[in-house]
Amino acid sequence: MSETSRDSVLARIRQALAAGPAPQPPRPDFAAPVHPPLGSADPVVAFAESFQRVGGEFYYCESLAQLAGQIAGFRQRQQVGAPYVWEPAMQALLWAAGVAFRADETDFIAQADLSLTSCEALVARTGSVLVSAATASGRRLSIYPDQHLVLARPSQVVSEIGEALRVIQARYGTEMPSMVSLTSGPSRTADIEKTLVLGAHGPRRIALFLLEEDENNGE
């Protein structure tokens, strides 16, 4: 290093020292929310927006008649048969609505194009559906069929994932389900040559039917 270069470096060091210590970054507010507010003040609206953003199909139903029409329209568009439904409460509701379904496991492996299940909670932040193995649907109906339908109520919508997990904890206590899963849109992967493939590890399509909570809806 030449004398001129050395003097220049030392001059910059002296200048930096004269300016005093560098300002400290602001102290984090650990009590502040991690996430910004939801896009909508209504968690149900926020969920619908998030759910569609991650690739889900959202259907709002004010009555059993609308539910029947929406499911019939979905089946017609996708050209699939009646869904497999194994939860007694879901079967009773669909029976009241006049919606055809498959209640047993006959030819399930060969013909499981469509399933319909309940869920534990809906997460507005991420558009996720929280399902568990605690219902009669078990693990298979939310994972194996090519297309998964979910029937839920507005009261099941929570803002954050933590709230959804607390719902599970309050519901089951120490008897936690053997499987709890957050489903955010259709199953997808881009592991192979960065090509997006749907349905690699689960349903290729997920649709949610949000049925209004009304005393005449059969529950």
From TrEMBL:
> What Pfam families does UniProt report for this protein, alphabetically?
LUD_dom
Domain (LUD): give its ranges: 102-210
- Report the InterPro entries cross-referenced here: FTHF_cligase-like_sf (IPR024185), LUD_dom (IPR003741), NagB/RpiA_transferase-like (IPR037171)
The name this protein carries in UniProt is Lactate utilization protein C
Q: Which organism is it from?
A: Hymenobacter antarcticus
Q: What is the lineage of its organism?
A: Bacteria, Pseudomonadati, Bacteroidota, Cytophagia, Cytophagales
